[in-house]
Specification:
Blueprint (H helix, E strand, L loop, with lengths): L10 H8 L5 E4 L8 H9 L5 E5 L4 H8 L3 E6 L7 H4 L2 H7 L4 E4 L2 H13 L3 E4 L7 H4 L10 E4 L6 E6 L5 E9 L5 E2 L7 H6 L3 E9 L2 H6 L4 E3 L6 E4 L17 H10 L3 H13 L4 H12 L1 H5 L34 H11 L5
Parallel strand pairs: 1-2, 1-8, 2-3, 3-4, 8-10, 10-12
Antiparallel strand pairs: 5-7, 6-7, 8-9, 9-11
C-alpha cells in the first residue's frame, strides 16, 4: 500500500470495509483516548462473532458485549460497575455463558503484543505467573494461553506467551495526515504495539493535518502511513474518555453510563439512546448537546500547554546537490553507475 495514497474515509465506510464478522479485534488505546466513535459504529453495524482484545475494560468492552458483537474477550481488566451482584454487560454475559474470557496481567498482555509487533512467535515472561490462577485457569485458549519450556542457556523453566496478531486494530490519536501517518502523544500504554502487531489498522483522529505538519514533528508519529488502511477525521472521537491536548474525561457522561451498566434493561436503554438512536458520530454529538448543552463540552476542553519545539535543521536534506551530483564525489547518478560498472562493483 503506497504511503502516498489518500486513505481518508468516513467511519461507516471504514468499519464496513475493514471489520469483518469473526475477526479478532483489538483496541489500541489504554483507558484514555479510547476510539469510542469507531467502536460505536461497529456496534451500529452489528458485527458478530468477534474476539475482542482490550488491555483495560471500559466503555468500549461493555458496549461491544452489550451489542452482541463479541463472543470471546482477551483482557487484563474487566469493569465491574455494579459490583458482584449487578456486574456489568461483560460480567452478565460471562455468567450467562454467552462470553468466554481469557485473563492476563498487564505485563503478559503487552508481552504478547510486543512479540506480535516484532514478528516473534512468542515472548518469555516472569515465572512468578506460574503460582497464580491466571496461569492455572484457562478458557478458549487452553494450553496456548501459556507454555513452559526449558531455557536452552540456563536449563530453568521459562514461561512463554504466544504472539498476538489481531486481524484489525481501531485506534484514536490526536492527529494524522491523509496518508495515514498517525501522531500521538501522552501515556503510550499498548497504543503503538497494538496497532503495529495488527494486520489492518483503522485510525480515527481529532484532526487531519497537512503532511508538512507531520514532517515538522516526526517524533510524534507512532504509526507510519504504509501500515494504515483508513483514516477517519472524528473530532471528539474518544468521548467520553479524554485526549491529551484536546479535552478531559467527561465524568458526567461516564457516570450516566456506569449507572446504566448495573442492569440489563438500563444498559439496553443507554444503547438505544446513545448508539442505535444516533445515525453516526456527528449525530451522537448533536444529541449530547441537545441533552446537556454545548457548555458541557466546552467545560472539558483542554487548556493549551505547548511543549518546546525541537530543532530538526540540517545543512542540507539530501546527499544530492542542486545540480543532481552526489555531494562527496561530485557525480550524477548516471555517472556513478558507470563508474561502479567500470570498477566491477555494480550488481543486479
Amino acid at each position: 500500500m503506497s504511503k502516498n495514497k489518500d486513505k481518508r474515509m468516513g467511519a461507516a465506510e471504514a468499519v464496513a470495509k475493514l471489520v469483518h464478522d469473526g475477526d479478532q479485534l483489538i483496541i489500541g488505546n489504554y483507558t484514555l483516548g479510547m476510539a469510542c466513535g469507531l467502536i460505536y459504529e461497529i456496534v451500529r453495524q452489528r458485527k458478530k462473532g468477534l474476539t475482542h482484545c482490550s488491555q483495560s475494560g471500559h466503555v468500549i468492552d461493555e458496549v461491544l458485549v452489550a451489542g452482541g458483537c463479541v463472543d470471546r474477550l482477551v483482557t487484563a481488566f474487566v469493569l465491574n460497575a455494579g459490583g458482584s451482584e449487578g456486574g456489568s454487560a461483560v460480567g452478565r454475559a460471562w455468567k450467562q455463558g454467552r462470553l468466554q474470557i481469557e485473563d492476563y496481567t498487564n505485563y503478559n498482555y503487552n508481552a504478547r503484543l510486543m512479540a506480535g509487533m516484532h514478528g516473534f512467535a512468542f515472548m518469555p515472561v516472569f515465572e512468578g505467573i506460574l503460582h497464580t490462577d491466571l496461569f492455572r485457569k484457562r478458557s478458549f485458549m487452553g494450553e496456548d494461553k501459556y507454555r513452559v519450556i526449558k531455557c536452552p542457556f540456563t536449563g530453568r523453566d521459562t514461561v512463554l506467551v504466544p504472539a498476538l496478531n489481531p486481524d484489525v486494530c481501531v485506534i484514536h490519536v490526536q492527529r494524522a495526515d491523509k496518508f495515514g501517518n498517525a501522531q500521538y502523544w501522552g501515556a503510550m500504554g499498548s497504543v503503538q504495539a497494538a496497532a503495529l502487531a495488527s494486520k489492518r489498522i483503522i485510525i480515527s483522529c481529532e484532526e487531519i493535518v497537512e503532511h508538512d505538519v507531520v514532517q515538522a514533528s516526526p517524533h510524534f508519529t507512532i504509526i507510519p502511513a504504509f501500515r494504515v488502511n483508513a483514516v477517519v477525521e472524528m473530532p471528539w472521537g474518544a468521548h467520553p474518555s479524554d485526549v491529551l491536548g484536546y479535552y478531559n474525561r467527561d465524568r458526567m457522561a461516564l457516570a450516566i453510563f456506569m449507572n446504566a451498566l448495573k442492569s440489563e434493561a438500563a444498559t439496553r436503554a443507554w444503547m438505544d439512546e446513545w448508539i442505535y438512536g444516533c445515525r453516526d458520530h456527528n449525530d451522537y454529538l448533536r444529541h449530547y448537546v441537545e441533552r446537556f448543552g454545548l457548555e458541557s463540552l466546552h467545560a472539558i476542553k483542554a487548556r493549551a500547554f505547548y511543549s518546546a519545539p525541537a530543532n530538526y535543521g540540517a545543512a542540507y536534506t539530501s546527499v544530492w546537490d542542486e545540480e543532481g551530483r552526489e555531494r562527496s564525489i561530485g557525480l550524477t547518478p548516471e555517472e556513478l553507475e558507470t563508474f561502479m560498472k567500470e570498477k566491477g562493483v555494480l550488481h543486479d
